[in-house]
Amino acid sequence: MMITTALATLLLAQLNDAPAGPLPTGTWINTEKPISWESRKGKVTLVHFWTFACSNCKANLPAYNNFAKEFEKRGVMVIGIHTPELEFEKDEANVRKAVEKQKITYPVAIDAKGEIWNAWKQQVWPTIYVIDKKGTVRGGWIGELEYGKGGGNAFIRKLVERCLAEKS
After folding, report:
1. In terms of C-beta density within 10 A (0-12 exposed, 13-18 middle, 19 or more buried), how is residue 81 classed?
2. Which fold has domain 2-165?
3. Which 8-state DSSP code applies to residue 90?
4. What's the pTM?
5. Which tens digits make up the pLDDT trace of 9-62?
6. Using N-to-C axis directions, what is the helix angle for 55-71 and 152-165, rounded to 10°?
7. What are the domain boundaries of the chain?
């Protein structure tokens, strides 16, 4: 686990100040049409990768819901990208049930084949990225936001505030 976390941290560092990866164009939940980077231009966006059978992912979902509510009026959007690890997590109906059960109200994209996961060079669930108004990855958090000494909630909030304060 430590090797995986170390590699994931290295990859996260490499993505900082790089353009955000692509967003799925296929199936989305909680939105009428797929979200695109073009539609998010000039706005801060949080993108998190998760899968519904992951206990660490479930631990972060309340925080992601809070971020969505807290920053919505300031144009910030949280986007969940559900990339399955196990076969039953690939079933769209199961993903929809999990979104409803977890009371997720922000847009969730289904990345059943892992194409977006691979494009973002993902290694670990859960991971959240903060994308600035120009579409650049400004940082993120790997794993549970408040595991151990935590600090992930405060870190993400500070990063969002910094991005909001910047000019487009």
Report:
1. buried
2. Glutaredoxin (3.40.30)
3. G
4. 0.92
5. 555 656 678 999 999 999 999 999 999 999 999 999 999 999 999 999 999 999
6. 30
7. 2-165
